[in-house]
Design a protein that fits this description.
The protein contains eight helices and 17 strands. The chain is an alpha+beta fold. It has two domains: 202 residues, Fructose-1,6-Bisphosphatase, subunit A, domain 1 (Fructose-1,6-Bisphosphatase, Chain A, domain 1); 134 residues, D-Maltodextrin-Binding Protein, domain 2 (3-Layer(aba) Sandwich), CATH 3.40.190. The structure holds 2,5-anhydro-1,6-di-O-phosphono-D-glucitol and manganese (II) ion (2 copies).
Length: 351
Amino acid sequence: MIGVNTLQEFVVARQADFAGATGDLSRLLTDIGTAAKMVNRHVNSAGLSGILGVHKANGNTSRNVQGESQQKLDVYADDTFTRVLKSCLKVGGIVSEEQPGIIHVDHSARGQGRGYGKYMVCIDPLDGSSNVDVNISVGTIFGIYRRKSPLTEPAVVEDFLQPASELVAAGYVLYGSSTMLVYSTGGGVNGFTFDPSIGEFFLSHPAMQFPKEERVYSVNDARLSDTDPAISEFLADCRQRGMTARYTGALVADFHRNLIQGGIYLYPGSYSKPEGKLRMLYEAQPLAFLAEQAGGATWCHHHNLLDVVPGSLHQRTPLFTGHADSIARLKNMMHASARPIPEPEGMWVLR
Ligand code: AHG
Ligand code: MN
Ligand code: MN
């Protein structure tokens, strides 16, 4: 049953929970909601409006900084989110999966005399974009940090290289059978469902928590032969316990299902690639923050992911996130492993 609270009303009402809050974060969160509506419209009509498939520049498939080919919708979602975020006076810098460096946002250049905003936004504009062409859910993931350097200067890399435990807010949008925006500012996790006939997100999932039961595990089992055998042992134990397998190939969709049904998502590192695949700043950290806020936990082979300070903007990390009991069991098995994945060297320091 959809409640009467719109995203905007809810965000503003929650602002009163923080002494001295200025409304800046509220404005930023509602702007993210606006960009999500724009991307939602495109995702839902992609087949009709000719925006399926890979993006080409000068006849060649365009690639992001990580060498991955970009879908047309990756580029559209990146343009949309960065355009909306740049117009938000509270944003001082953006790191996007689709762009190599910090996108600096200088408001004084627009004659607004405010210099650079105080919030640093990390974003995966379109997560699981290989799902678009086959009509399966995709998402957006975002994390918001408070900058450390002076507002009069452009943001520096260190403003983004903070542990997830320092996130001011994080969330995701899931463009699925219905579109949802789920976020947390540290006081629990709340989910909003988009009503396309009204054009608003309404509070539909208040105070989201992992359920008591552990039902699902999500892993790409094609990647298990080159990783810690403790993970295969853990999965056998999950099956023994009656858990079932679900994996969509979009982290947002898998995380969301596991949050609602009770489950764990695993993307390990391997002996040949100990850092794994997923990106720290705009995939792992925001979801680790949400998992913790929902009573879950997140691990990365050797550490609680919330305590890790990333070493670079597009750093990768192994990721195990979800139900706290599942993570605890996995952790114990990995501790006892005869062939653990080595800690990736020089990638991060602990808080
Ligand atoms: P993105 O589309 O932003 O590059 O992310 C894809 C990620 C993640 O969403 C998903 O869980 C994972 O890649 C799937 O990887 P595999 O194909 O290796 O299973
Ligand atoms: Mn992604
Ligand atoms: Mn992406």
